[in-house]
Amino acid sequence: MVSKVERERAEASDKKRLDLTPQMDIIWQSNETRGLGLMVSKVERERAALEAAEKELAERKKKLAELEQEEAEKQLARLVRKVGQDRAIQLLELAVKVKPKAAIDALTKLG
């Protein structure tokens, strides 16, 4: 059975952990387990920190891809507004007929 004091300590320690980055949380957990007599090896801590860093990197890459997609959509919308929707469709249809690379090359020479 858990005493009231132990429960309050656990709640307080959980509140402290909310502000930590994943890497700091792992270090914090390892320090907490030392006090309980549970040893976490340096290798295990390093492995956990590496996994947290990899997870954070994957999340940041995903967010970057989303931001790039949003930027491309904004740029497309801006250009469509400049030439008009009907002309934009017409330009894209013609570009598809003559192959996009050839259309880009021809328009680049004109511009």
Descriptive notes:
This protein has 111 residues and is mainly α. It has helices at residues 4-17, 22-35, 42-83, 85-97, 100-110. α3 (42-83) crosses α4 (85-97). It is elongated, with a radius of gyration of 28 Å. The mean pLDDT is 82.
Q: End-to-end distance, in Å?
A: 79 Å
Question: Which assembly state applies to the chains in this document?
Answer: single chain
What is the H-and-E element order? HHHHH
The mean pLDDT is 82
In DSSP terms, counting alpha (H) and pi (I) runs of 4 or more, how many helices?
A: 5
Low-confidence stretches: none
- Based on CA atoms alone, the radius of gyration comes out at 28 Å
- The residue fraction in helices comes out at over 70%
> Which structural class is indicated by helix and strand composition?
mainly alpha
The overall strand count is 0
For the report, how would you describe the main beta sheet?
none
Shape: elongated
Strand content: under 5%
Features of this protein?
elongated, mainly alpha, 111 residues
Give a brief description.
The protein is an all-alpha fold and 111 residues long.
